[in-house]
Amino acid sequence: MTNFSPSEPPQSPPPKKPILDFDEMVAVIVAFLTMGAILFWSLGSRRIELISQQWQKILALTQENRQTKTIPDSTTLTREEVARTRLSKALEQQPRRQVDSPRTTPLTETRRESSRSILEQPLIVLPTKTARETTKTPAIPPTRIPPEANGTPTTAKTTTPQETKPSAPPKPPTELTLTFKDVPENYWAHPFIAAMAAQQLVKGSSDDTFEPNQPITRAEMASLIGQTFERQPTSETIDFQDVSQDSEVAKAIDSAVRSGFMRGYSGNIFRPEQEIPRYQVLVALASGLALQPTQNVEETLERYDDANQLPDWAKEQVAAATEAGLVVNRPEFSLSSLHPNETATRAEVTAMIHQALVYSGRLEAIPSERIVTSP
Fold first, then answer.
1. CA distances (Å), 371 to each of 201, 326, 329, 335, in order?
2. 144 has which bridge partners?
């Protein structure tokens, strides 16, 4: 049996009370933090004090070292004081030995030699830090070389001017000699060929031959004009159908056409391999030099008994060439004949070009019986 009645339920045990409530817990944490802060502050202040003591000891030792090891500024020392200081240092570094007698030993000789070498060394004065910072090396002004009398500055290295000898004047045409074996001195065109060759205005067919009686083609005539005359272009380039642009004479033909000396045939034909007749040589020179007749054309051409063989379009240029003295006949032609349609030879073309240069003032005149004079 129990002490409870059946109608009353059994009572539960009372709840357990916590060890620390919230306020007590906060108080404990604050207490621990306070104790920790006090402990950290005490240890930290002790450590700072030790560090400061160590620094004070280091500064004190540094000052003592400076006071005990201070060397006077070398700039204030005299040469004798520096020498004594070096000598004393050298003697202190050498080992000391007891000497029984005052006689000279190898050690004393070594010391004397070392001291002598120290005294003989040049004195090197090192500036202090302050002097090195404030002292500035004066700039050396550049050496100025006085100008010459004409105002042109000279250089340090002078050269002796070399005397220049004046070039020898060209020999007169009568004294010129040729190396062409086929142009002897008694040849009628020798003076003309010699004068032209001396000025390098004409070349031989080889080193020792000229071939004066060889007929000349239109292409060769263009080459001679290009070698002799330097004229500014006065007309446009013509694309001739029978002249290959890759050929050697294409440039010479183009120069002769553009400078006004030569012209082609109708249909843009030049006929470079055709042998050129005498009247075309005179027409080419008169056209290139822009010669104009000053007298009546028919009266000028009356001196030629074969003037009727000239084409009408060429009469004016041939008359102008006759007045300018460009017509030269070979010995088998009389001076009263022109032989306009005869093929021109290398000697004839050279003589006529020579006369054209005489008319232009580039060469001196040569007396010759083969020159046709104007009436």
1. 20, 8, 7, 8
2. none
